[in-house]
Specification:
Number of domains of chain B: 4
Number of helices of chain A: 6
Oligomer: heterodimer
Radius of gyration of chain B: 27 Å
CATH topology of the largest domain in chain A: Helicase, Ruva Protein, domain 3
Shape of chain B: globular
Largest sheet of chain B: 6 strands, antiparallel
CATH architecture of the largest domain in chain A: Orthogonal Bundle
Radius of gyration of chain A: 32 Å
Structural class of chain A: mainly alpha
Number of strands of chain A: 0
Number of domains of chain A: 2
Number of strands of chain B: 10
Structural class of chain B: alpha+beta
Helix content of chain A: 55-70%
CATH class of the largest domain in chain A: Mainly Alpha
Number of helices of chain B: 23
Helix content of chain B: 55-70%
Distance between the termini of chain B: 67 Å
């Protein structure tokens, strides 16, 4: 899959390759804060890359953003505050999980809609089919007589 | 000269395909045996011509013929031979040629196999297959000619993109394309059935091996791509929800649904309309994937607008085939006679649930991939749909699938017993719970990993519960059990093994939560503890390769005092393209892997690096291999080789005892 992305990269005139993401010098001393910084970074897009979080990218912009995230976290911001701080400045484009709002409602509701509508459709189809396949009408006397005749003819001791 | 022969063969194959798209079709509609008879030899000839064109391009790459533009742009005389060959499809033009080559392979295959197939059905399938060939051959010849010559041949080529100089390129695109293009046969069968209006269990029996083959290759292709990304991209992720990955996941999800609905159709003649629809959908999504990857529309809407010829052409192909087949579907679907009925709680019902959930996940990926494009075109606002979105939507969709999978296998056709099926899975449930407890005790967190690991054990064991029940019974001796096990149809084993493979992959995914990561600046002589292993850096030094230079770290991997492995992660620089790549140092220990990736070089003898211990990570891809194995077993099921099964049945002597 990535191969295709690589092919695309060829077409897109050789974007730089990811090599270093988080560097040793960037890390926060407090492992808890550092872990939070990593988690927040995984939700932020490196905006000059194809589809990478800033945590995975080695682009200079991603590095700047990682520093910024660590700055905000050290300053005492909550994870959500850091995310909204960045999306206020860079727009929704930076959020790997799109916010739920009018323009993204359809996106978030699609799985549920398909599931519910599909389920209802199936239910209707099953009912229609089972109605159609209602028990066959009982045999007429004439049919019963014919069966009787056939059975008598085939049984060896008749 | 050889290049011109290739070019000419490609043009001839287009002419042949045009004829092949019409003559057998007319023959099938008019019941003209002479016209129908054209299909088989012409389909084989079409394959031969495209194979000749492909061989000519391969020859140009192998001998580094720098008078061919395609070779100049993607090759270099110093490039190792394996990359000269795989470089043939490591570029746009060549990869499209590979695409039609595989299309022709399938066309020729359906011309000769299976021997017993209604002649008009075969003719129709080959005709539809040829329309697809016409579309893509003309696309290649008009917009992406791989045989174009350069006016002034240079002395040396531009080399292949270094990222693609990897054994993965030799394997991944062919596997993936066989999967993608394999669904074209399902599509052609569906179109043929809609044209002649005959859709029955026999049709499902003809289509099923092709669907399974495509599914097996697509599974392998995706797994291979995932592993390639894992070892080249440097931070050890295995799935990125990249639009290009999604492009291959959509046909896989739809194809998985198709494999299952075709099974229902074959056994019970139910779900006919739905199976036809899925056959159309799977290939349409393959076409969509080709469009997304080839048109450049994913990089940016603007990249698409600057060089629209290719994109617009594929879009036109897409609209023609998807629109045409759906129109045909809408016209004919109502005339299809509905098949067998079944209660909601039954094997069919479980497979319908499977189809509903898989279709929903296909729709989710579809919307997630295209929504940003649509929104930007609609009001210019840019959003990103990344991994967190899919994690939120896929977990609730797939947990029910995983729970239901073994239960569905236990249900009888027509009318099943849910309580009974669940009771027979108690052993698997208990094993899953015990595994959950063990993993929780062993690792503690994260909760999601522990729950997934428990679920995976339930899946692996539950997948075999049905077979276990059929083989063993009260007081059955080992010999009888063995005989029964061998007597079971291969497709029963295939189902169990493929389902268990999903459990295996799931366990590998679960275990990513228990990985260890260290980000360090390494000096030679340093030693680091990563998980149960210690890595000692022997040296950090420069080295020379055939068409690159590199900095390499020589690292010994030890467990306690014992040396267990030796790895050499490196950072390469390719002179011709002035690009860097990183080669991770990876060693598989048990099912886990030690993974070391180099980053920025610091001062003399020091280098930044990421060190990982990834427990059970290889199971992610081994699981895919297991799934593919299951698919293969089902392909070879005797029942699917129509005609053979009947003969085998007749060959059993009259007094033979059925196996219990």
């Amino acid at each position: 899959m990535r191969a295709f992305r690589s092919l695309l990269m060829v077409l897109a005139l050789l974007a730089p390759l990811p090599a270093a993401a988080v560097q040793p010098s960037e890390q926060l001393a407090d492992p808890k804060l550092e872990q939070r910084a990593r988690d927040v970074s995984a939700h932020l897009r490196c905006m000059v890359c194809q589809n990478q979080s800033i945590d995975d990218s080695d682009a200079p912009l991603a590095k700047d953003l990682r520093m910024l995230v660590r700055e905000r976290i050290t300053a005492g911001d909550s994870d959500d505050a850091v995310l909204s701080f960045l999306s206020d400045r860079y727009g929704d484009f930076i959020l790997l999980k799109p916010p739920v709002k009018a323009s993204t409602l359809l996106l978030w509701l699609t799985p549920l809609l398909v599931l519910v509508l599909g389920g209802l459709g199936l239910h209707a189809a099953m009912r229609r089919r089972n109605d159609k396949a209602a028990p066959a009408p009982a045999l007429t006397d004439e049919e019963k007589a014919r069966i009787e005749a056939l059975v008598r003819r085939d049984s060896p001791q008749a | 000269m050889i290049v011109e022969i290739g070019h000419y063969a490609l043009i001839l194959s287009l002419a042949l395909s045009l004829m092949l798209g019409v003559v057998p079709l007319v023959g099938a509609v008019r019941h003209d045996a002479a016209l129908i008879a054209v299909a088989r030899p012409a389909a084989v000839a079409q394959f031969a011509l495209i194979a000749l064109a492909f061989a000519a391009l391969t020859y140009a790459h192998v001998v580094s013929d720098f008078s061919v533009v395609n070779v100049i742009e993607n090759s270099h005389s110093a490039k190792p031979m394996i990359y000269k060959i795989s470089g043939v499809w490591g570029n746009h033009e060549g990869s499209m040629l590979l695409w039609v080559l595989i299309l022709a392979v399938f066309g020729a295959a359906v011309a000769v196999w299976p021997p017993a197939m209604p002649r008009d059905l075969r003719a129709l399938v080959i005709a539809v297959q040829s329309w697809i060939a016409v579309a893509f051959l003309s696309f290649i010849l008009l917009t992406s000619n791989p045989f174009a010559r350069a006016g002034l041949p240079p002395i040396e080529g531009n080399d292949l993109n270094p990222i693609l100089q990897d054994p993965g390129l030799a394997i991944h695109p062919p596997l993936l394309y066989i999967g993608y293009v394999g669904f074209s046969i399902a599509f052609s069968f569906a179109a043929a059935a809609l044209i002649n209006g005959r859709i029955d269990a026999a049709w499902a029996r003809f289509i099923r091996p092709w669907v399974l083959i495509a599914w097996v290759f697509l599974t392998l292709g995706i797994a291979m791509g995932s592993y390639w990304a894992y070892y080249t991209l440097g931070w050890g992720g295995f799935w990125f929800w990249d639009p290009v990955e999604n492009a291959s996941l959509m046909p896989w999800l739809a194809g998985t649904a198709l494999v299952h609905s075709a099974a229902v159709m074959e056994k019970r003649e139910a779900l006919k309309v739905w199976t036809i629809f899925l056959a159309i959908l799977s290939f349409s999504l393959s076409l969509l994937g080709t469009f997304l990857v080839r048109s450049g529309v994913l990089t940016s809407v603007h990249a698409f607008a600057t060089d629209p010829a290719r994109g617009v052409y594929i879009l036109a192909i897409l609209v023609f085939f998807i629109g045409g087949s759906l129109a045909l579907f809408a016209m004919r679907a109502g005339e299809l006679k509905r098949g067998g009925i079944f209660a909601p709680i039954s094997r069919e019902g479980a497979l319908v649930l499977n189809n509903l959930l898989l279709t929903t996940s296909t729709a989710t990926v579809f919307v997630g991939t295209l929504y940003p494009l649509a929104l930007e075109a609609f009001n210019g606002s840019k959003i990103t749909v990344g991994a967190p979105f899919y994690n939120y939507t896929f977990v609730p969709l797939f947990v029910p699938i995983f729970i239901a999978m073994p239960i569905g296998q236990m249900l009888a056709w027509k009318r099943g017993d849910l309580v009974g099926a669940t009771q027979r899975l108690v052993f698997a449930f208990v094993c899953g719970l015990i595994a959950t407890a063990i993993f929780a005790w062993w690792h503690g967190a994260p909760v999601l990993s522990i729950a997934m690991a428990g679920l995976s054990v339930y899946l692996m064991i539950g997948s075999f519960a049905d077979i276990f029940g059929r083989v063993f019974g009260r007081g059955v001796s080992v010999g009888v059990a063995l005989r029964r096990a061998f007597g079971l149809p291969l497709s029963a084993w295939g189902t169990a093994i493929a389902h268990a493979g999903i459990g295996v992959s799931l366990l590998g995914v679960a275990a990513t939560g228990w990985g260890v990561e260290r980000i360090v600046t390494m000096h030679s002589g340093d030693s680091y503890q990563v998980g149960p292993y210690s890595l000692s850096v022997e040296a950090v030094m420069p080295r020379k390769g055939p068409n690159y230079s590199e900095v390499v770290a020589i690292i010994n991997v030890k467990r306690g005092e014992n040396l267990v492995a030796h790895i050499e992660p490196s950072k390469r620089f390719f002179q011709t393209r002035r690009m860097n790549t990183t080669e991770a140092g990876i060693v598989t220990l048990g099912f886990g892997q030690v993974y070391v990736n180099l980053a920025e070089e610091m001062k003399e003898g020091a280098i930044d690096a990421r060190l990982y211990w990834k427990p059970l990570v290889s199971l992610i891809w081994l699981g895919a291999l297991v799934m593919a194995l299951g698919g293969c077993l089902s392909v070879f099921d005797r029942r699917l080789r129509v005609g053979v099964a009947a003969r085998a049945r007749n060959a059993i002597p009259a007094n033979a005892q059925p196996a219990e």
